[in-house]
Every structure is written in structure tokens, then in C-alpha cells.
Design a protein that fits this description.
The protein is about 0% helix and about 20% strand. The strands form five sheets. A five-stranded antiparallel β-sheet has the order 1-16-3-5-9, with no helix packed on it. A hairpin with a 5-residue loop joins β13 and β14. It is mainly β. It has one domain.
Length: about 300
């Protein structure tokens, strides 16, 4: 189902809820049941985890930060007759650290599972690197279960766990994320930052390994490692939404930051940042950098998303 395309038809009425909450279930928007419709399709995506920071240290002892995990995706189709006149929607903003869940509830609270119609858990934060120890991969957003969303579970269409982020680079380039040809609405995790090599040009941050078929997928490269001692390390790329042309959307995460030159000096003492994730996707990890480098800020995991389409 192409949820973004449905409003062009008079048979469909779609409400899109973007980030509105700074913490899990802290803020709620209101949805009102429309007249003249009989069914609702609810798409729920949890927020992605932010990427970890790369280490700053001597050449050969500064590993890369890890990529953040992607949020889970939940889709249900439920008769409107079984829903109350109002539902309450909590969608987390983009943030550093672990991603929060997205909720659809019969009351403006997530304290009582028996009121939850749909939820999608957030992805875990990518770990920060420390010396030669790379950042630990951000964990997957766990798939919804009957216990966590009992009202909507009998009408479940899809309950997908998120993707784990990439472990930080330990020598040379950051780790890539491999993606498949899935066409359901889902988010991808973040790639990791590159490690610093002693006395050598910097290495590239992790990017995305895309399959050659289907052909709509796009390459997504990591930050470029510093080629000279006075060249700053390249930042990772931010994520984006890709319309597949096959009835779905893919949400790309951030890529990893490149590492500085192993003998960086002057303008080259700048750490490569990881890219921010798009909706539900993980942020990229930061690259390793030589002692004295200006530290980069950690990347953001993508905000959550809820789409309710009635027909």
C-alpha cells in the first residue's frame, strides 16, 4: 500500500503524524475518526538510534563510532467500527541516543498496554568508540507483540523488527550496511565511522552496499578519509526517503564519518561526523581522529512516523 499516494483518491483519507514528543509517550496528538469510511490502515515506525562518536587519540589507537539501530515497523488493518471516536498519537522527535517508540493509543498515555492499538519500538544508539575499542552496534527496534499492543494485534498485517547498526571501524574503513529489495515501508540502520591509522591518510566511513536488482536502490557513501595532513576528514551523508516505484518507501540511515590523516595538523585536525538518519533510521558513527582534533557532534537517529489511512 502506497500510503503517501492514497490522498489523491477520493476514497481515501490520510492523516500523517510526524515527530511531536521529546520522550517516550510524553506528548500526544489527536486523531478523529472520519465519517463515511469503514476501515483504517495504520503504519507505525519507531525512531532510529543516533550514531556513536569516534575516538580521538594517537595514530592507530582511535576507532570509529558505531551506527544507530533502526526503529521497528508495524502495520495493521482494522475496522473503524472497532475504534473509538478519537485516537491519540505519540511520535518521537529525532534525537541523539536511543530512539523512542511510536504509539497509537485509545488514551493519551502509554502506561497501560491494554489501551495500545499500535506501536513500533525505537532502535538502539550506536556505541561510542574508546581508544582501540570500536563502538558497539546500535540494537534493533524490537518487533511489536500481542502483549505490547493487544488491541491491534488481531488485525496485524506486518510486525517487523528494525535493523542493527554497524559496529565501529577497528582498522581502516568503517563498516557498511547491506540492504535488500524490501518494498514495505521500513527504515535502515546507520553505517559506522572509520578508524585512524598511524601516519597514513584517513580511511572512508562506512556506507551502504546496495543490490543491483531492483535497480531503484541508490548508493549511499560514507565520509571521505583525509587525503593530506591539512585536509579535514569528511562527514557522513544524511539519510533520505527513497520512493521505490513499487508501492513502498525505504528510509535510509546516516553513513559513517571518515577518519583524519594519521599525522594531521592545522586545518586537518577536524573529526568526521556521522550523518543523521531519516525517518526511523539510524544515525552514522563518527570517525576516529588524531589527538588535538575538533570533536564532532554525535549524529541524530531519525524521528518516528505514524500514518492512518481510512477507506
Amino acid at each position: 500500500m502506497d500510503a503517501y499516494g492514497l490522498p489523491t483518491s477520493p476514497h481515501f483519507e490520510t492523516a500523517v503524524f510526524n515527530g511531536n514528543s521529546l520522550a517516550s509517550g510524553a506528548s500526544w496528538a489527536t486523531w478523529r475518526k472520519p465519517l463515511g469510511k469503514s476501515m483504517a490502515s495504520i503504519v507505525c515506525i519507531g525512531a532510529g538510534g543516533g550514531g556513536g562518536t569516534g575516538a580521538i587519540g594517537a595514530g592507530g589507537s582511535a576507532s570509529g563510532g558505531a551506527g544507530g539501530g533502526a526503529g521497528a515497523t508495524t502495520i495493521i488493518n482494522i475496522p473503524l467500527a472497532l475504534l473509538p471516536a478519537r485516537l491519540y498519537i505519540s511520535v518521537p522527535y529525532a534525537r541523539t541516543g536511543g530512539g523512542f517508540p511510536s504509539y497509537v493509543s485509545t488514551a493519551p498515555t502509554n502506561a497501560y498496554p491494554n489501551q495500545i492499538v499500535a506501536l513500533a519500538n525505537g532502535g538502539g544508539a550506536g556505541g561510542n568508540a574508546s581508544g582501540v575499542t570500536p563502538g558497539t552496534a546500535g540494537t534493533t527496534g524490537a518487533a511489536a507483540t500481542a502483549a505490547t499492543m493487544p488491541l491491534g494485534w488481531p488485525f496485524m498485517k506486518i510486525a517487523l523488527a528494525g535493523m542493527a547498526g554497524a559496529t565501529g571501524g577497528i582498522s581502516g574503513s568503517g563498516s557498511n550496511i547491506g540492504i535488500t529489495g524490501a518494498v514495505v515501508a521500513r527504515a535502515f540502520s546507520g553505517a559506522s565511522g572509520a578508524a585512524l591509522s598511524a601516519g597514513s591518510p584517513g580511511s572512508n566511513g562506512g556506507g551502504y552496499n546496495v543490490v543491483s536488482s531492483p535497480s531503484y536502490q541508490l548508493a549511499h557513501a560514507g565520509g571521505i578519509g583525509a587525503a593530506t595532513t591539512t585536509t579535514p576528514a569528511g562527514n557522513g551523508l544524511h539519510g533520505f526517503r527513497l520512493d521505490t516505484g513499487a508501492g513502498g518507501h525505504l528510509y535510509y540511515g546516516g553513513t559513517g564519518g571518515g577518519s583524519t590523516h594519521g599525522s594531521a595538523t592545522g586545518a586537518g585536525l577536524v573529526q568526521g561526523a556521522g550523518g543523521n538518519g531519516f525517518i526511523g533510521s539510524g544515525g552514522g558513527g563518527g570517525g576516529g581522529a588524531l589527538t588535538g582534533s575538533l570533536a564532532a557532534a554525535p549524529s541524530l537517529g531519525g524521528a518516528g512516523l505514524v500514518i492512518i489511512t481510512c477507506y
